[in-house]
Design brief:
The chain is an alpha+beta fold. It has 10 helices and 23 strands. The radius of gyration is 45 Å and the shape is rod-shaped.
């Protein structure tokens, strides 16, 4: 073995290992004191990149949850305000229902009208003042507002709140006033003479693109009740919130005059209810019946209508004959078989039509007929178009208030007028649609809150799992690191001892120089 003093490689080797041990021990101390396995990129470059990306996602998910919470807050504020709007609409509905009662005089109905206008004004106030962070919620401007819930770009959902202003709440209404016709002919001839009252194969009436004349056969009478039923039974129209109703009431044009059938004459009064052009029942009078009073006719009509299961009710009001149905077309035919007995009767004392006298001026059968189509009302929250082909669906029969191809007229809360019975009935339909609109919006806001809460729950769970994944990469395993530190600490101590020994090796040369 060579002994030298100019170069002590044993000491240098020991110092090198000692330096490495010190670096490892310092690294362990840094990890143990910070709790992180990765304190800088030199600890684990790729691990640092992955851990930072995971942390970014976790923090972004937390912010997404906070964003979704604001969506819940907006929905809750808007839904609470809409509940107040609903209360006002409910009050308006009951007042319109009160106004529809004909025992109310003009002053009472005007007072109800004033109340309804005040309630509409209160709805406008609610719609104007409902806001979140300075953003109006119920005036129609809060539409397509994005809520960014995710950790990445374009992970958004949107929220829209329809206007709750009185000018925007209401219904798109199509009305058919229901027309009348009269003629000195049989009922079927009356229909044929004016095809606007008679269905002809190929005619169409479309509401929002759906044909509502199904079930009619050629030469049927146009019938508002059947059309309303078709609308209400159409799944597509139901999905669009479009509903219909029909009514029909005929008050005779002239007061009742008792009539007597002369000699051997006979008078047959045939009544038609609905679209079928055949008589549902016939009342026959002869000279043996004496003077026929209004009460005689009312009693006979109601008896026959009940026996035949018809929606027809007759009554006598102030000596006028009143006929009511559930919207079905009402028709009648007076047929006088004249044998020279001197009989005459006027059709206008049976229905609300012009005067048509059936008399025995000529021997043989003489006819007079009348028809009244029911009033059709169609309402929907959203705009819809009305299209019809041929004339009967649009003209004198239904007497629609719209030209083919146009959109149903919007009736808002501000346009309600309950000072008449017909206006009050229309107000009920409009308010019913407005209430459905508000309730649908409230339901949508509730669904939004459920959706936002689901997003929050998912974000919170995902953020927890993401942080756990980050922790596995970034955080130090204290048990393992403490074991490494103890080992490095022991190596440091032994290295220091060996360095001391290595430094003493050159002094052994002195023993040779003695």
């Amino acid at each position: 073995m060579a002994l030298t003093i100019n170069h002590n490689y044993q000491s240098e080797f020991t110092q090198l290992n000692l330096s490495r041990t010190q670096m490892s021990m310092n690294s362990s101390l840094e990890k143990l004191s910070s709790g992180y396995r990765i304190n800088s990129a030199k600890d684990d470059a790729s691990g640092l990149f992955i851990a930072d990306q995971l942390k970014l996602v976790a923090d972004a998910l937390d912010q997404g949850s906070r964003n979704a919470l604001t969506g819940i807050s907006v929905s809750q504020i808007a839904e609470t305000s809409l509940s107040q709007v609903y209360d006002k609409l409910k009050d308006m509905y009951t007042k319109a229902q009160d106004a529809a009662n004909d025992v109310n005089g003009a002053s009472a109905r005007q007072a109800l009208q004033t109340d309804i206008q005040k309630l509409a004004s209160a709805i406008d106030t609610i719609a104007k003042t409902s806001e979140y962070n300075g953003l109006s919620l119920l005036d129609g401007t809060f539409t397509d507002k994005s809520i960014h819930y995710g950790a990445r770009a374009d992970q958004t959902t949107s929220i829209s709140i329809s206007s709750a202003r009185s000018s925007d709440l209401g219904a798109n209404v199509l009305q058919g006033a229901g027309a009348t016709n009269v003629g000195a002919s049989a009922y079927t001839a009356l229909l044929a003479a004016d095809p606007t009252f008679q269905f002809d194969t190929g005619e169409t009436l479309q509401i929002a693109g759906q044909d509502v004349l199904t079930g009619f056969t050629n030469l049927d009478a146009i019938d508002a009740k059947k059309i309303a039923d078709n609308i209400n039974n159409d799944a597509t129209l139901q999905g669009q919130g479009i509903t219909a109703s029909a009514s029909n009431e005929s008050t005779a044009a002239s007061t009742w005059t008792n009539f007597t059938v002369g000699g051997t004459d006979s008078l047959a009064l045939s009544f038609f209810v609905g679209n079928e052009p055949t008589a549902d029942f016939t009342l026959t009078y002869t000279n043996a019946d004496g003077a026929v009073t209004i009460n005689d006719v009312v009693s006979a009509i109601n008896t026959q209508a009940s026996a035949n299961g018809l929606n027809l009710v007759a009554s006598a009001e102030d000596n006028y004959l009143v006929l009511k149905s559930d919207g079905e077309t009402i028709g009648m035919q007076a047929t006088l078989t004249d044998n020279g007995g001197g009989t005459a009767t006027n059709v206008d004392q049976f229905m609300n039509v012009a005067s048509t006298v059936v008399d025995d001026g000529t021997l043989g059968a003489v006819n007079g007929s009348a028809i009244q189509v029911g009033q059709l009302t169609v309402s929907g929250a959203d705009a819809y178009t009305v299209n019809y082909g041929d004339v009967s669906a649009s003209g004198a029969g239904l007497d629609l208030n719209i030209v083919s191809g146009n959109t149903a007229t919007k009736t808002s809360l501000n346009a309600l007028d309950v000072t008449t019975n017909s206006g009050a009935e229309l107000a009920l339909r409009v308010l019913d649609q407005a209430i459905k609109t508000v309730d649908a919006q409230r339901a949508q806001l509730g669904s939004n809150q459920i959706e936002f809460q689901a997003l929050i729950d998912n974000n919170d769970f995902s953020a927890t799992q993401t942080r756990e994944a980050e922790s596995r990469i970034r955080n130090v395993d204290f048990a393992k690191e403490m074991s490494d530190f103890t080992m490095q600490q022991t190596l440091m101590q032994s290295g220091m001892a060996m360095l001391s020994q290595a430094n003493q090796l050159p002094s052994m040369v002195l023993q040779l120089l003695q």
